[in-house]
Amino acid sequence: MIEEKVLKNFVGRNIVVIGGTGLIGRQVVDILCSFGAKVTIVSLDKIKVNEKTEHVFGDITNFEFCKNITKDIDFVFHLAGIKGSIEVTKKKPASFFVPLLMMNTNILEAC
């Protein structure tokens, strides 16, 4: 488990978890909320994973959207990916690589 002294740095902080509805993102959101962080989840999934969070539906391939969601934020956890099968990845690798590159670049530049 993450050391408690590290997690105490997140108390009362404004944190965005991009991909907060995913397998890893849900766990990160729960841990951050348990330490009193103010968490905003950004996702293309419209499911509510934690009642203590704000949920923003949006696409991080849009740079303006990325600038908006990172405004006045202390920390960003970027855990988003693209859903798909291994078969699709093999047949059309650029369909995964290009959007992932755009997402990562947008978040880095927006921060």
Characterise the protein shown here:
It contains five helices and four strands; from the N terminus they run αβαββαβαα. It has one domain (4-110): NAD(P)-binding Rossmann-like Domain (Rossmann fold). With 111 residues, it is of the alpha/beta class. β1, α2 (23-34) and β2 form a beta-alpha-beta unit. Strands 3-2-1-4 form a four-stranded parallel sheet, with helices on one face. The protein has helices spanning 4-7, 23-34, 63-70, 86-91, 94-110, and strands at residues 14-18, 38-43, 54-57, 75-78.
Entry keywords:
111 residues, alpha/beta, 5 helices, Rossmann fold
Describe the structure in brief.
The protein is α/β, with parallel strands linked by helices. 42% of the residues lie in helices and 17% in strands. The two termini are 27 Å apart.
List the helices and strands and how they pair.
Blueprint lengths: L3 H4 L6 E5 L4 H12 L3 E6 L10 E4 L5 H8 L4 E4 L7 H6 L2 H17 L1
Parallel strand pairs: 1-2, 1-4, 2-3
